[in-house]
Write a structure and sequence with these properties.
With 231 residues, the protein is an alpha/beta fold. 45% of the residues lie in helices and 7% in strands.
Length: 231
């Protein structure tokens, strides 16, 4: 995209930082990491004339000791690639840390399992069962979208445009967005930055138990929820 296209995009969407050169932050010394973090934010703000409040690590890789660097670089929030989460953001080292729910990509169940094991939440994978085995990310997204709508929390869909094109998923994505749009009368859309600002003001607001809560439906097999609400 050329600068004018980026500025046009910024009129309708929040643009976040992603380093200057798409480098793996976890491999850099602190000084170099900070330069990548700060440089990315400054470039976006100078180009668009809007604040850049949120950062996402390339590849989702970072070291916990680097979170204060993100805050030092001027960001208010960071988005991870923690999947299958419908929980609210959490605050770590003064930074709002945002998990994600589904990636627009036909992952194998093993990919979700590896992701879950890294954050010690394998129960989420077991509870989703056959939905993950199907490699149908849109079906998974619909299940978790409806679950979030019913129980509260945050549904966060993400993806890479080049992967969506490569996997021929644009029509699938469009169909899911139509589905989600039909339910927006009872849900709100917010940017990552606005979500964290709201959460900072009222951290107990819209608190969601995600997969670990006391809601009776948490124990209901996901296939039954799908049959009842989506079929």
């Amino acid at each position: 995209m050329n600068p004018s296209q980026v500025r046009e995009l910024a009129k309708s969407f929040e643009i976040g930082g992603h380093t200057l050169e798409h480098v793996a932050i976890d491999t850099l010394p602190d000084a170099e990491a900070l330069a990548q973090l700060s440089g990315s934010r400054e470039w976006i703000e100078q180009l668009t004339g809007t604040r850049c409040r949120v950062f996402c690590f390339p590849g989702g890789k970072f070291r916990s000791r680097q979170l204060p660097l993100v805050r030092q670089a001027g960001y208010e929030a960071v988005r991870t690639v923690e999947l299958l989460s419908t929980a609210n953001p959490r605050r770590i080292d003064g930074l709002c840390v945002i998990p994600t729910t589904v990636q627009a990509f036909p992952h194998a169940a093993t990919a979700y399992a590896r992701n879950a094991l890294k954050r010690f939440s394998a129960s989420a994978v077991f509870r989703l069962g056959s939905v993950l085995l199907s490699r149908d990310w849109a079906r998974l997204a619909k299940v978790l979208f409806l679950q979030t709508k019913d129980r509260g929390g945050v549904f966060h869909l993400w993806g890479h445009s080049w992967e969506i094109a490569e996997q021929e998923q644009w029509k699938v994505l469009e169909d899911f967005l139509v589905f989600a749009g039909e339910h927006l009368k009872s849900a709100r859309c917010v940017t990552n930055g606005d979500l964290c600002a709201e959460y900072a003001e009222s951290p107990r607001k819209n608190t969601a138990p995600a997969f670990e809560g006391e809601n009776p439906r948490a124990a209901c097999p996901i296939e039954k929820i799908w049959e009842k609400e989506v079929s």
